[in-house]
Amino acid sequence: MAEVLSFDLSLRRDGFALSLTERIPLDGVTAVTGPSGAGKTTLLRCLAGLERGASGSVRLGDDVLQDETRFVPPHARGVGYVFQEARLFPHMSVARNLAYGARRRGVAQERIEEIVRLLDLAPLLDRRPGGLSGGESRRVALGRVLASQPRVLFLDEPMTGLDSARKAEIMPHIVRATHGLGLPALLVSHAEDEIQTLADRVLKIEEGGHAGWGRVPVRLPARVVEHCDHGAVLVVGEARLILPLPASAERNWALAVPPDGALVSTGPPGPGNALASLQARVGAVPGDGTVALEVAGHTVAWPWPEGRIVPPPGSDVWFTILKVYPRPTG
Ligand SMILES: Nc1ncnc2c1ncn2[C@@H]1O[C@H](COP(=O)(O)OP(=O)(O)OP(=O)(O)O)[C@@H](O)[C@H]1O
């Protein structure tokens, strides 16, 4: 069982109050989402020990980071915080910025080399932050935080201000930093594409309080079999689809299909602008509004539209994919 980040926090300041009690598994990526001013950054700051005015408790696994008698300072919490802006040291090379992150914890050189490889930082090592693009700076900032060997990663809108091409470039690096290194993360984001691609669960907050857990997409494994003028041809189950992925793209992908990103029909779909259509089989019907579908060799809990009759278990249905968010898996 995954360890848990648990907290019961309150904070009051002019015109704003935060009051949240949660248990978040330290496993995969938890997106924290909600309207502007909801308190997402404030929550991360409280958990990281950056808000002295917050009262309550914070536990990371078995470790108490805060309670009535204890307040562990930010640098000793094991939290790696990637801020909205890169905050690199401008007078140091990229290599020295990375080494700075590692120095405090006496991190082995091999670990730095692994981070350089994972985040593709080798070509940047001798450069100064001033000359880096927005996407490159974020990558270095992520690398510097990873070099401090955190137990959990906090990503506060790490792609703000990047265009969709730069986002597509940095997202695989975030996947490698989290899923590749097995590092759990909290990701503050408003952006649907970031949440659907990266998140394993979604915590929604509003006006400083809990507003529910959001739905996460189902993920289907796919593999690149060839490239064409329009991108990469991927195979998912018995279907093929073309996605605009770069020629250098990884071979294995998880295709995140959001709840509004597919249609299920009881007969084969006619021609349309679907990305792909897969034959699926109805499995268990647990009675929680979802139906277990066997799609492309996977069983997924698919939200069944209210009022539509569920075909009996064992029936064939068609799973027509309208929208996917691809995530590399290595
Ligand atoms: N340093 C500060 N001092 C006083 N109030 C602040 C400070 N920073 C944020 N606030 C206020 O606290 C509330 C929560 O802000 P916070 O930045 O946590 O929201 P958010 O959900 O992260 O918003 P956004 O999506 O716009 O980044 C807002 O009302 C904001 O105006």
TrEMBL record:
The keyword 4Fe-4S does not apply. GO terms for molecular function: ATP binding; ATP hydrolysis activity. Keywords: ATP-binding, Nucleotide-binding. It holds the Pfam family ABC_tran. Residues 2-232 form the ABC transporter domain. Gene3D superfamilies: P-loop containing nucleotide triphosphate hydrolases. PANTHER family: ABC TRANSPORTER I FAMILY MEMBER 10. This is ABC transporter. It comes from Tranquillimonas alkanivorans. The lineage of its organism: Bacteria, Pseudomonadati, Pseudomonadota, Alphaproteobacteria, Rhodobacterales.
